């Protein structure tokens, strides 16, 4: 049988080291040797001796479910083997965190991560953000974080003299030392006369980076359990 489908570009290669790597622009591979965490339902294939189970809720579990956005819970993957993760053909990328790093991420953009990372749900200053943005997740520690974005992410530098204003439904995350607040770009009268509709943005100021996606949030699909 001959086809470009079976070319090296599409062929899954054995892992050369434990942990997370990019399989292609739309999926991540994790060589599991112990335990890792992933968005529930994001596993698309695996091989080896792996067990998948929903992460227990426990005390405060309702808030911790917000780490994956729209109330989706995490799952724990244990054992030895390889697993592939993806979600709706979103673009995937990796972030390596080192001690002292802090990164705040909208839960809808989390795909999988090392258990060596700590995460804490924080309320975004200036609540009322739609699309799952009321709570964001601050990651810290030493390890690798797998993220996804609907389209190619755009990373914009933020400086004390040049704050950045982003659509609240398009923001993926930001370096956690930035200050956030809601900013109104139009008067009520302007909106009534037919403004752009982008009346409120998230203002980020300080020294760091903000990550946005080239699309706005879409309504969450019903989850199958």
Question: Can you give keywords for this protein?
Answer:
225 residues; mainly beta; 6-stranded antiparallel beta sheet; 2 helices; 16 strands; 50% strand; globular
Outline the structure in words.
The chain has 225 residues and is mainly beta. Helices cover 4% and strands 50% of the residues. The radius of gyration is 19 Å and the shape is globular. The model is unreliable at 58-63 and 127-133 (pLDDT under 50).
In short:
The protein has 225 residues and is mostly beta strands. The chain contains two helices and 16 strands.
Please trace the helix and strand order, writing H or E for each element.
EEEHEEEEEEEEEEEHEE
Number of strands: 16
> Major beta sheet, specifics?
7 strands, antiparallel
Q: Class by helix and strand content?
A: mainly beta
Helical proportion, percent range: under 10%
What is the distance, rounded to the nearest whole angstrom, between the alpha carbons of the first and last residues? 38 Å
Helix segment tally: 2
Mean pLDDT across every amino acid position: 81
Our Rg estimate from Cα atoms comes to: 19 Å
Which regions are unreliable across 5 or more consecutive residues at pLDDT < 50?
58-63, 127-133
Report the portion of residues in β strands.
over 45%
| Rough outline | globular
**Oligomer status:** single chain
